[in-house]
Amino acid sequence: MPDDERLLRGFTVTHVRDCLADPAKNRVIAELWDNVSPAFPYLNAVVPNLTYAPGASIMMVRRGERLLTFYPHVAVMAKVDGEEDAVAQLCWFQGLCNDIWRRRGELTPCYERRRLLGPLDVYRLLPQLNCRACGEATCMAFAFGLLAGEHRLAECPPLTAPQHAEARRRLAELMT
Ligand code: SF4
């Protein structure tokens, strides 16, 4: 892609710290070379499971157990596995951002506020039987595991029952 079509030309990692919530992981901060906020409404229109605060120009995305927060010129990444993993997340975001920006003429931007999917949102869509067939003691524990990327929906057999078809469809959409 030519430089003038790219919204985000690159980034520089500026801080690598221990993650407060999990010392085995890192909290990494990077400077974004360009203002990425014009892409936020387009990302909000197509990327599931993100938080978007239009007034504050903040976007948060969960990838596995990582929580990535993007400001116009800064990225703050929690629970990443060191600088290499942080760079991989930034490369993912850069590719996504530039692709969305290149296709913005085909997309309808969404300016609605959205919040990140939480365990309770997931739990409400699960069968709530606490049957342990997924290997977890409770459906709530399974919901946490799903959000952390440690479980897949297919590990919950009761979810395949016809009465849960709509919940399964919504969960599949949200967990994409
Ligand atoms: S298998 Fe499904 S219904 Fe059973 S405990 Fe796990 S999440 Fe809950």
Description:
With 176 residues, this protein is α+β, with helices and mostly antiparallel strands. It has two domains: 3-106, TATA-Binding Protein, CATH 3.30.310; 119-174, Electron transport complex subunit B, putative Fe-S cluster (3-methyladenine DNA Glycosylase II, Chain A, domain 3, Orthogonal Bundle), CATH 1.10.15.40. It is 31% helix and 21% strand. It is built from five helices and six strands; from the N terminus they run ββαββββαααα. Strands 1-2-6-5-4-3 form a six-stranded antiparallel beta sheet, covered by helices on one side. The longest helix is centred in the middle third of the chain and has 21 residues, at 82-102. It is globular, with a radius of gyration of 18 Å. The model has no long low-confidence stretch (mean pLDDT 88). Residues 126-127, 129-134, 136, 139, 142, 156-159 line the site of iron/sulfur cluster. Iron/sulfur cluster is lined by residues 126-127, 129-134, 136, 139, 142, 156-159.
